[in-house]
Structure formats: structure tokens, C-alpha cells
Amino acid sequence: MLSTLEEVALHQQHIEKIEMLGQICRHLKILYLQNNLIGKIQNLHRLKELEYANLAINNITRIENLQKCESLQKLDLTVNFINKAGLMSVRSLSNNIHLRELQLVGNPCTEWPYYRQYVVATLPQLQKLTAAVKDGRDVKRSERIAALQVLPELEAKLRRELLAEGIDPEAAAAVEDDSLLAEDAEIEETGYMDENGEMMRPWCPKTRILDYRETMQREREAEEAKKKSRSNLFAEAE
Questions:
Q1: Predicted local confidence at residue 229, as pLDDT
Q2: Bridge partner list, 52
Q3: pTM above 0.90, yes or no
Q4: CA 147 to chain CA mean position, Å
Q5: Which residue, 18, 231, 203, is CA-closest to 106?
Q6: 202 φ, ψ to 5°?
Q7: Rounded CA gap, 43 and 17, in Å?
Q8: What would the pLDDT profile of 175-192 be if each residue is shown by its tens digit?
Q9: Residue ranges of the domains in the chain?
């Protein structure tokens, strides 16, 4: 029965949006959604027993909608698109008191020199914070105390830097309902043709979806061509 499942693996399924899981599988403890095209963490608020969520290698730009996952202990957001502005959404995990491990390897936010101090101070319940392939350091009590002491200064610094980049810190801090694009929505092309006639695109969530949709279109066209070829062969045989 789906309603009694405690573990679900939906990795590499080209999923763009999380749907129905929270309604169908209320007793999930482990959820694997890595290597998809998910642009927003959503529809998981009913998973009160969820302990581990793997959302690595997706298109996520903010941490949100996990506040009601009160049993969450480990969250893997490796290789997503959480940048310096998205770093402010870390605060949404403040009430997940059982959260012990957060993985942010490969996210742009880890390039901010003070990111670790900021996260450690914002989420004092963390025991391990991973931001680089070889960096799975436990959070020591002394590190946490030192980070908490400079948190106001770091918050002010982050806000100043965002303002200088033309980003509204208040909007960045507010965990808004800013889902990526619906599956059937139009996606603006931001790429350009290079001198060899190849499409060059910036690495971003839209690019991953565009590339995926184009690949699926080519596969559909190839399959249709095969079907047509087989039909022609049968017709000639008759």
C-alpha cells in the first residue's frame, strides 16, 4: 500500500515538480528525489515523519516549505542553484529542531567566504555541514558559539552585499511561493549561437529544462521515425 510506504526512490525521473507525495505517502521517512529537474521544494508539508530528504542535483534556488517536516534530520541539497541571496532562506529550517546534517556541496552560496559561519549560527541544531566534496566537518560547540557572536554582523554584511548587487534583502529573506516554471509554460531562450553554429547557454535551471525538453523531443521524433519506417516496410511487404 502506498499509504504505508516509508521509503520512496524517484531519482533520475526528469521530475520538474513535486506533487502528490505528501497526500499519498504520509508515512515516508526516506525520500530520494536526486538528479531531477525540480525547481522548488513544495508539497512535502504533510510528511511529519520524514527524516531524510535527498534533493541533490536539481534546480532548487531556495530552501522552503520544509518547516512542517518536524522529524527531518538530514537534508541533501548538493549541486543545486542556491546562491548568496538564497542563503537567506536557510532560516526557514530554524524550527526543524531535529535537523542534524545539511549538505550544500556545489551550490553558489558556498563561495561566499562567511557562508559556513552564517549557516552554523542560523541553524544551531546542526551537527554536520557539508559544503565541499572533502568537507564534511562536524560543527563543534566552540565554532557554534563563535558564529553566533558574529551573526548580526554577518547578516548586516550579507544584506549590504545583496543591495549592492541590486537584490532586495527583504525579498530574499522572505520564503515566497516562487516556483520555477510550470511544465507546459514557455521558457525564454537565453542562449546564443557560437561560431560553429552550436547553441551556447548559461548554466542555470532554465537551461537544464530546455536541454531536457529538447532531448525528449529528439527521442520522440526518432521513435516516430522508427514507427513510420516499420509501417512502410510492412506496407511494401503486402
A1: 76
A2: 30, 74
A3: no
A4: 25
A5: 203
A6: -70, 150
A7: 9
A8: 743 323 334 445 556 666
A9: 2-173, 192-237
